[in-house]
Amino acid sequence: MSVEACAELVERGDPDRFRAVMAAPREARAQLFPLYAFNLEVARAPWVTQEPLIAEMRLQWWRDVVENTASGAARAHEVAGPLHGLIQDFGLPVLVLDRLITARRWDIHRDPHADAAALDAYLDDTGAGLIWLAARALGAPDGAEAQVRAYGWATAAAGYLRAVPELRARGRQPLPEGMETADLARLGLERLAEARKGRKAVPREVAPALLVGWQTESILNQVVAGQSSPELPEVRKRWALLWQAFTGRW
Q1: Which of 121, 174, 197, 205 has most Cβ atoms within 10 angstroms of its Cβ?
Q2: Angle, to 10 degrees, between the axis of helix 145-169 and the axis of helix 181-197?
Q3: Domain locations in the chain?
Q4: pLDDT on residue 132
Q5: What pLDDT, on the 0 to 100 scale, is given for residue 74?
Q6: Distance CA 135, CA 206 (A)
Q7: CA–CA distance, 44 with 126 (Å, rounded to integer)
Q8: Cα–Cα distance between 123 and 119 in angstroms, integer?
């Protein structure tokens, strides 16, 4: 039940996010690793079983954990314990955590998103919600929510587009009818521009929470250019992360 255990989970299950946290100041890592470990546990819950009912039960367990932080019922869990501490110490909004979990129910079933609005809500509740939680844990004021969420939505869209080939290989229909990957990428670029217009509303100390989006713009541009499996070369990845970590600009 430690930050170190959360860090190990993230390193194994989400290497890019792990690298982003390791590029952040040491004092920020104690807030970021438990959140990202929680996100990893929730995101993979629908995929570790072929039984929808079991997957639903896993997600409900996490909803109960978030709702009952004061009870201490799951404090011994390696992720739930540190997550409880974050919620209590930093006043993280439980509703945002609950919506993040609930949105993952889409991953259990094979139905496509009903329409573009449904996909928008999914990305907002998952990726945008997670980055807003990370920003709040680092002291983001309420006035920064719109900018942080817009950046988070763009980052979530980039990550989702990277997952599209795998989702299709698993028999899923990741995009609503009539939407192409380039359409989603353009929407992501629009949200990214929106976030950057309001950059002044986001305090510099919140920048470590935004490091997870260091590849966002490049990935979205690759998809717009027609690449079906967007990915950055390793050297470019490293330099882009170092630049954002050093300058604080996103």
Answers
A1: 174
A2: 160
A3: 1-92, 110-250
A4: 98
A5: 61
A6: 6
A7: 13
A8: 6
**Residue showing tokens 């709702």:** 67
> How confident is the model at residue 9, as a pLDDT?
95
**pLDDT under 70: residue ranges of the chain:** 1, 69-76
Report the b/e string of 50-66 with b at 16+ CB within 10 A. Answer: eeeeebbebbebbbebb
pLDDT at residue 76, rounded to an integer: 64
121, containing H or E segment? helix 116-123
| Residue 11 phi, psi (nearest 5) | -60, -40
Model confidence over 19-62: pLDDT tens digits?
A: 999 999 999 999 999 999 999 999 999 998 889 999 999 999 99
Distance (Å, whole) CA 161 – CA 153? 12
Query: How many residues make up the chain in this entry?
Result: 250
Mention every residue, 6+ apart, whose C-beta is less than 8 A from residue 140. Answer: 132, 148, 202, 203, 206, 209
Q: Which pLDDT does position 75 carry in this prediction?
A: 62
Burial of 183 (0-12, 13-18, 19+ CB in 10 A): middle
Tokens for 70, please give them: 């004061």
